[in-house]
Amino acid sequence: MFESHGWSNSTGGSYHLTPVGKKVLDEYDDLALTVEQVIEKAAWLQRLDQCHSDVPVQALADAKVVVSGPDSPGIVLGAALDLCDRELSQFRALTSIYNPTLFRAYHQLLKLGLPGEAIVDHSVYQHLHEEELQHFLDDSEFADFDISWLEESLTLGIGLYDDRKVAIGAYNETGKGDHIAMLVSSNDTVVEWGVDLYNTYRDQAYRTTERTPETVSQ
Question: Does this model's pTM top 0.90?
Answer without folding.
Answer: no
